[in-house]
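Researcher: Here's a chain I'd like modeled. Treat it as a single chain, no partners, no ligands.
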Amino acid sequence: MGPTRFTVAYWCVLLAALLPYACAYLAKAGGFGKPRREGGYDNHEPRAWLGRLTDWRGRANAAQANSFEALPFFIGAVIIAHQLAAPQTRLDILAVLFVTLRVIYIAMYVAGLPTVRSAIWAAAFLANVAILLSALH
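Model: Modeled as a single isolated chain. Structure tokens:
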């Protein structure tokens, strides 16, 4: 086995893992610095507080949950594709595509555009399937 390197696809795994935290920040940002009694962020009961959010902040919280849900398949697909010696350039391009689509997905979710959001979700899912199958010759 030759030397290994941290591929673009592996960097994309890191970026995808950070996306839910960006969503959480969006959801919570308006509550930072305000007292709890005035609706500020409640670190004592954060899930209950997040569950009461509405509008774009509530959607940001939902995007956070969906971003965590999308991670296992993406991480597994990237690892399997590497193990099966998928063409690295193809794998890297598909991984960048997946992360890009997920960023767009989050933006559409927060913006309240459900039809576009669902179409982007499907495209990201298909990119993930393509990653998994990228080692097939």
